[in-house]
Amino acid sequence: MTTLQLKNIVKRYKSQTVLDDLTLDVADGERLVLFGPSGAGKTVLLRLVAGVIEPDEGRVLIGGEDMTDVDAEHRGVGMAFQNFALFPHMSAFDNIASPLTATKSPKEKIAAGVQKVAKLLKIDHVLSHHPKALSNGQKQRTALARALVGSPPLLLLDDPLRNVDAKLRFEMRLELPRLLAAEGATVVYVTQDYKEAMALGDRIAVMAAGRIRQVGTPQEIYNAPADIEIARLFGDPTINLLDVTPQRGGEGVFVELSNVRVRLADYGGDVVGRQRVLGLRPETISFVDAAAPGAIPVTVEAETPLNEKTVTLALTARGREILVSRPAGTPGPIAGPAHIAVNGSQAFLFDKASGVLLPRADLAAKRNGEAA
Amino acid sequence: METMSPLERALRGLALTLVVVFFMFPIFWIFLMSFQTNETILAIPPSVIFTPTLSNYAALITGKLQTAAGTLDIAFMSNLGNSIFLSVASVAVSLVLGVPAAYAFARHKFRGSEDIAFTLLSFRFAPPLLVLLPLTQYFQWLGLSNTYFGLIWVYQLICLPLILWIVRGYFEDISADVEYAYRIAGHSWFATFRKIALPLAGPGIAAAGLLAFIFAWNNFVFALVLASADKQPVTVGALAFVTSSGIQYGQIAAAIVLSVTPTLALALYAQRYLVEGLSLGAVKG
User: Fold this and answer.
1) Model's pTM, two decimal places?
2) pLDDT at B237 over 90
3) Which residues in chain A have their CB less than 8 angstroms from residue B178's CB?
4) So what's the ipTM on this one?
5) CA nearest to A83 within chain B
6) Tally of CB atoms within 10 A around B204
7) In terms of domains, do A250 and A317 share one?
8) Which of A144, A236, B146, B156 has the highest local Cβ count within 10 Å?
9) How many angstroms separate the CA atoms of B75 and B62, rounded?
10) Whether A242 and A220 share a structural domain
């Protein structure tokens, strides 16, 4: 276990800035997920920590020690690559053993170490095979075993589940947390899959365009995305985003959807009267009777039954698309006119111009209360 | 596999036969000539029916050439030895210098690296005659003319760019991640070069070495000008068969057969690598 600190990291390729003044702290034993779309700079950041790429500016501290100018082989980190990066001319055994041979451990100790991690990852029966004779899943496990075998205090996993099939990915998503917890290492895990990020991370750092946009626990990011883009990245189906102009009435802040007032949570004074974006998670919308209070008339366009939920696409009177998600097996309209109700207290309000989440007065008050 | 009509197949066969005859006939004819005397070679009309003789080979191996004007000394066998020594040594030096350089050019883009690599390649563009006169002058000043050392040095103009550019393509083909993985596992860059890059680029290095060997073997003009008889390879040595009493066609043919055999055997043995190495090196920039 160790800590990782990145301080004001800048990395440029030619004129393009890939990492832009990036600062990040990872605590001892923490599992931090770097999440972001491709091209955000996640992989570059990971390589920079591993020491195979040098930053143009900034420092990399591992366990409090400045490692910025230390070669990769002396940093003592373990890394698994997205494309596995197995040594094609070596057997799985030699692949896994490579971090141990570097330390010149005795042969029996190396063999024991490899056997142990191979058994853990269920690849002990293919150790004599060369990578090209391994299935994709076995390759992925071999790469993971190679990263784990030396029990490195800092483990870097670059989207290790990207190139394996869906079934295996699901299995590994269940298996990995247990494995990593047993290992006890500090982990930086890169992924583009928000579910993976939420399943594996103690905290998630959302990256976009070379910057970290938000760091928080999975719940914090899901329940309070810092901006529209992050809100869009987390959640399946994606969040509904509607242009609105909030108003203030007797009972508080509200917006009008198809001439129906939807009361929102408590916001500060300057929220109203300007162009905002309302974010509605599909699961916070439900189908109701026409007579129900706050019922908004819609037309059901299409329905997609997924395994555990049913997603419905509905159109409002003004033709705005709204996705509604409900648990599978619950009743709902299939086509034609229907009514929805929106839970305004669970909605997000973003500024339209900057895309930034507007702070809720009630949550701020609560947080202040906790701090006091 | 596409299905072909009998006509297509026949035409294809015919075309292939024509190509093979076109390229193989000279070799076949030389091979026949090497077993004939000058008289049967020069007979008109030429005939493929003759009494084979080993006299040409015997003359080459003993080094005594019987001509109408008397016995001539022929240094063919020592020429052959020179060829082997010069080619092998040149390729060895080129590999020692070129493979690490190719790795550097493939992996480390430093200021001017492309320019240096291109300059080295440009040695292959320039006709040898262009540099021959100044080289002769330098070699005389430096005392390098008519030395193996000097010849091997000049042969680097032929071998080094070839090896550098072909092997560079192979190194670039190795995923950088594979090398990174080995570094992160705790191995030095040199260990990574030895244990990962070299084995993975092995076939390419072999192909490049082979090609360089063939080019070195075929070189004529450098050795002609920069070396005298005792250091000359077979390509130059063959000139000795043009004697005052006529051209010794039979011996020339036998000499050609002997001197072509090593490269032909090598090329046949490694043609798969060769094709791969050539196409890779050519496409990669």
Assistant:
1) 0.79
2) no
3) 85-88
4) 0.83
5) B177
6) 25
7) yes
8) A144
9) 9
10) no
